[in-house]
Amino acid sequence: MVLRGTYCLCISLRRGLELEIGALGMIRFDQGLYVYVGSALNGLEARVRRHLRTSRGDFKATHWHIDYLLREPEVEIGGVYILLSDLREECRIAEEIKKLGTSVKGFGCSDCRCESHLFRVDSCDALSELGLDNVRLTEFLD
Length: 142
Hints:
This protein is of the alpha+beta class and 142 residues long.
């Protein structure tokens, strides 16, 4: 059975970075905690596994904005939260997280009208309150 739904990556930056993010150009990322919101309606497990492999340096492709960030050695995925659904909930979740943090304008949302799908936050704890389940990273690792 293929899992479908929305996922959030809780990402830690050990130091500030300035990176070129595809067509967005140079973006400054301050040290701290970030949440990235994505959806995978054709294979949630495979999508999250790909992000984890990119973060570990095992996967080098840069297809999405998040790939540019995850491939940096100073970046670590500290948690994965998922919401199983056949519906695209990514934008609704992003709007809720926007209230909790600071958006990185234009990041990860080139296919929708959202301001961003990446947010600097103080904590990832509120993701559970939004209906997402915290999943152990080992469930996605090979």
